[in-house]
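Tokens for chain A. Residues wanted.
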């Protein structure tokens, strides 16, 4: 293996395709003691763990939970999933029994701008192409279940509308797991009487679907069905909510998700087992893999490494305030991922100049990392900083980051798992074990259930983003009050906001101050049991960039996928 990160000429997909994978049945038995009868194979290298087996784990003691989060993302790259995989391999490398729980990638960013999401270098989960493209079909099942409900709503209205749905107040949009700006706002049912009643509608990306959120928060199949039935699909003329169960849609939706709800089991390049299941975005949804995957992993391993999407202000906050609140999870340690390149970008350095030593910019950019460290402390959790090594990092830059972190009471360690696999993150693994063993974690949620909904939004804005305030039109505040009167006041809130800044301005790097968080729209996810607050210009259906990743993805003469990442 190469000795220093990012000098290897091989691409991630070339490394993954050269890997010698072992049959997943053999690895599952050897590493976790899972018999083949408890696995539903999807080919040789991926399988679903049966829900019957998942239920049998209930009485077992939980392992330690490690949450991987990051600084605010930049084009320089941070490597959060790569770190999650590398750290899990490293824990096994130092003699611990560890596995990881990750989100499934969306096709939108795979063909858009972000690329794949299976780690990178020698810290990857495989089979990489399968994981990034279709995998076990979970996202297709979620898309189908969501759009089945859409079809049933329009069909119910067409055939007499016994539930009294006001077609002007249908709240359920359609979804597609692809970036397609042309579908953001549409008019449906055109073409005459036979096609129904024309109305305005629109599409979100599948990872923003409430069905995705429900899928990831449901404890089992029964809980999934109940939550699907509680989805509010629209309102009557008297403004009374109409739910999916009122048009008898939840049973058929559950049937489409029956197989998908079982967690997917794969392996890393080093044979470490990983659950990859569910995948809501953190900038427009709650950004965590399924509860069933995380809770099951905790029964199977002594250490479980999981990740939350984007920076800690979005992903970690939602993981803690939504997922942990609902599932009773309590992390023992948080790992905050950073790169010296990204910190310099937060300090004002252009991407083209990142290879040059710039201690002044680095010190300025440290303000972003410092704010994330402080925010994690507010939750009562200890943290470790993992710095992904790049070949251009200088000794002076590394020393500066370590010194600044030490002053904040946090240890910062260099990690080279991209180039060296688990061995390259052994120091981080040892530090994480030490923090877990100290037992200092004492999770404190940011706000109480009883706090009014807009005050919850305001609390996140002030405490986590460090905004002066959250602002909203009277119509938004009135909507929140109406939901409180309907009995939804105790739900947590899920902020949909740009991931690139603490503010709603994606160009405001570092640790901006003197801004407000404008709440443009609020949506009720009654089945998922949270309120979505859409802030700034965030889109729930992204568009493709001028030069999308799809331009370079192809299949060669040997039938191998190329250009995926």
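Reply:
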């Amino acid at each position: 293996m190469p000795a220093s990160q990012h000098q290897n000429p091989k691409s991630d997909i070339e490394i993954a395709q050269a890997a010698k994978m072992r049959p997943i049945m053999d690895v599952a038995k050897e590493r976790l003691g899972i018999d083949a009868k408890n696995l539903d194979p999807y080919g040789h290298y991926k399988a679903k763990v049966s829900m019957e087996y998942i239920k049998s784990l209930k009485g077992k003691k939980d392992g330690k939970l490690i949450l991987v989060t990051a600084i605010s993302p930049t084009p320089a790259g941070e490597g959060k999933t790569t770190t999650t995989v590398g750290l899990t391999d490293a824990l096994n490398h130092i003699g611990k029994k560890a596995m990881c729980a990750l989100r499934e990638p969306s096709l939108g960013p795979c063909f858009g701008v972000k690329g794949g999401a299976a780690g990178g270098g020698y810290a990857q989960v495989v089979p990489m192409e399968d994981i990034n493209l279709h995998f076990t079909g979970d996202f297709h099942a979620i898309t189908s279940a969501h759009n089945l409900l859409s079809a049933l709503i329009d069909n119910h209205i067409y055939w007499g509308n016994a539930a009294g749905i006001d077609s002007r107040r249908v709240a359920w949009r359609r979804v597609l797991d692809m970036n397609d700006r042309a579908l953001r706002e549409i008019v449906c049912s055109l073409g005459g009487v036979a096609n129904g009643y024309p109305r305005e509608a629109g599409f979100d990306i599948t990872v923003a679907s409430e069905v995705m959120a429900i899928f990831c928060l449901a404890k089992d199949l029964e809980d999934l069905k109940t939550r699907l039935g509680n989805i509010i699909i629209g309102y009557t003329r008297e403004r009374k909510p109409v739910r999916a169960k009122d048009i008898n849609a939840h049973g058929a939706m559950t049937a489409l998700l029956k197989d998908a709800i079982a967690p997917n089991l794969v392996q890393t390049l080093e044979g470490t087992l990983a659950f990859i299941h569910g995948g809501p975005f953190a900038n427009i949804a709650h950004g965590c893999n399924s509860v069933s995957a995380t809770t099951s992993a905790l029964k199977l391993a002594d250490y479980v490494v999981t990740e939350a999407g984007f920076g800690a202000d979005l992903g970690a906050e939602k993981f803690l305030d939504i997922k942990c609140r609902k599932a009773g999870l309590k992390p023992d340690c948080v790992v905050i991922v950073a790169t010296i390149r990204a910190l310099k970008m937060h300090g004002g350095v252009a991407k083209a100049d990142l290879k040059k030593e710039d201690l002044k910019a680095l010190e300025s950019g440290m303000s972003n990392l410092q704010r994330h460290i402080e925010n994690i402390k507010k939750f009562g959790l200890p943290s470790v900083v993992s710095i992904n090594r790049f070949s251009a990092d200088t000794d002076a830059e590394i020393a500066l980051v370590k010194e600044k972190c030490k002053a904040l009471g946090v240890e910062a360690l260099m990690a080279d798992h991209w180039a060296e696999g688990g061995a390259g993150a052994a120091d981080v693994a040892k530090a994480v074990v030490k923090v877990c063993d100290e037992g200092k974690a004492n999770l404190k949620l940011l706000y109480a259930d009883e706090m009014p909904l807009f005050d919850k939004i305001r609390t996140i804005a002030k405490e986590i983003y460090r905004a002066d305030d959250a602002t909203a039109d009277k119509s938004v505040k009135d909507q929140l009050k109406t939901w409180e009167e309907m009995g939804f006041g105790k739900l947590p809130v899920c902020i949909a906001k740009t991931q690139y800044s603490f503010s709603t301005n994606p160009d405001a790097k570092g640790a901006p101050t003197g801004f407000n968080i404008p709440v443009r729209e609020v949506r009720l996810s009654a089945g998922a049991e949270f309120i979505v607050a859409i802030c700034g210009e965030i889109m729930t259906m992204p568009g493709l960039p001028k030069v999308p990743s799809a331009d370079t993805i192809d299949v060669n003469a040997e039938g191998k996928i190329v250009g995926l990442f």
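The radius of gyration is 23 Å. The first strand starts at residue 39 and ends at 41.
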